[in-house]
Amino acid sequence: MDRVYLETKIAAADDGSIEGLAWKFAQPDRIGDMIVKGAFTGASLPLPMLFGHDQNDPIGTWDVAEERSEGLHLKGRLLVDDVPRAREVRALVRSGAVRGISIGFRTKKAAPRPRGGRTISELELLEASLVTIPMHPGARVTSAKTAVRALSLAATLQRAAAQLAKKEI
């Protein structure tokens, strides 16, 4: 199984809902691999959600895998009502300690890239893990609602306050 670590934005809501960009198209990961749009077609759902690619540490499921123009988006749910480890991981996501998604897959079709790595055009997606440091610089958790929204709102308010302060001078 190939393991690819991606930097992602993720967020986890109180009910465990979570979503993120698991692979960003048109940008290689840290070892030079690129996965092209269409490679994720036919992903078998639900997809296991693991912590750190540990097959003995399932924490939820990914129920939606959607290729969009920028990359592969995943939506799922941490099993916070049933799995104590899922509650721990939700806390880590909310704190920002865990903000990456990494995919585990089996390559079916790939071609070497001139400067190293591969261009992967067909694969079997096996799992997607929440991780601290992902391989792809564009992969991140985008919504865990409470934490991400709060941090975004705080940043917006800080920018607005700074603009108001400039106008008062």
- What's the domain count? 1
What is the β-strand count?
Answer: 10
The major beta sheet can be summarized as: 10 strands, mixed
Q: Spans with pLDDT under 50 lasting ≥5 residues?
A: 146-151
What proportion of the residues form beta strands (DSSP E)? Answer: 35-45%
Q: Specify the number of helices.
A: 2
Describe the structure.
The chain contains 2 helices and 10 strands. Strand 8 and strand 9 (118-131) form a beta hairpin. It has helices at residues 84-95, 146-168; strands at 2-6, 10-12, 17-24, 34-35, 47-51, 58-67, 71-78, 100-112, 118-131, 140-143. The chain has one domain. It is of the alpha+beta class and 169 residues long.
Task: Quickly list its features.
single chain, 169 residues, alpha+beta, 2 helices, globular
Concise account of the structure shown:
This protein has 169 residues and is an alpha+beta fold.
